[in-house]
Amino acid sequence: MPGSDTLFYSVVVALFTIAISTMGIFTRKWNPKDKHCYVTGGSTGLGLCLAKILVKDGAHVSIVARNQEKLDQAITELESLRISPEQVIKSYSFSLTDAAGSVAALDAASVPFEGRVPDALFLCAGASRPRFFIDDDAEALERGMRDAYWIQAYSAHAGIKKMVRQKVPGKVVFVGSMLSYMSFMGWSNYAPGKHALRGLADGLASECQLYDISVQMYFPCTMETPGYDEENKLKPELLKRLEETDKGMTPEDAAQAMYKATGSTYYVFPDATPPSVDQVTTWLDQGASKVVVPLTLARDLSGLIPSEKLVLLLDTGSASAVTDKIRATVSGVLLKTPAVDTDLLESVKQFFKGLSFYVLPSAETVPTTTSIQALKQLGATLVIPSSQLTLSSTSSSQLNVGDAFVAPLTSDRPDGLFPTIVTAFNLGGRSLGLVYSSKESITESICTGKGVYQSRKHGLWRKGETSGAVQEVVSLRADCDSDSLEFSVIQHGTGFCHLGTSTCFGELNGLPALERTLQQRLQSAPQGSYTRRLFEDPKLLRAKIMEEAEELCAAETKENVSFEAADLIYFALTKCVKAGVSLADIEASLDLKAKKVTRRPGDAKPQWTRPETPKPLSAVVKTTPAHPAAPSAPAVTGNADGIRMRTVDLSSCSRSERAQLLKRPVLKSDEMIAKVKPIVDEVRTRGDAALIEFAAKFDRAQLSTTIISPPYSPESMELDPDVKNAIDQAYANIYKFHAAQAEKAPLVVETMPGVTCTRFARPIARVGLYVPGGTAVLPSTALMLGIPAQVAGCKEIVLATPPRSDGSIVPEVIYVAKLIGASAILKAGGGQAVAAMAYGTETVPKVDKIFGPGNQWVTAAKMFVQNDTDALVSIDMPAGPSEVLVISDMTGNPAFVAADLLSQAEHGIDSQVVLVAVELTDERLAEIEREVDVQAHALERVDIVRESVRKSLIVRVANDEEAIAFSNDYAPEHLIIHLGNAQGAVKSIENAGSVFVGPFTPESCGDYASGTNHTLPTNGYARQFSGVNTLSFQKHITSQEITKEGLRNLGPVVITLADCEGLQAHGNAVRVRLAAI
Question: Where in this protein does the record put region Disordered (predicted)?
Answer without folding.
Answer: 598-618
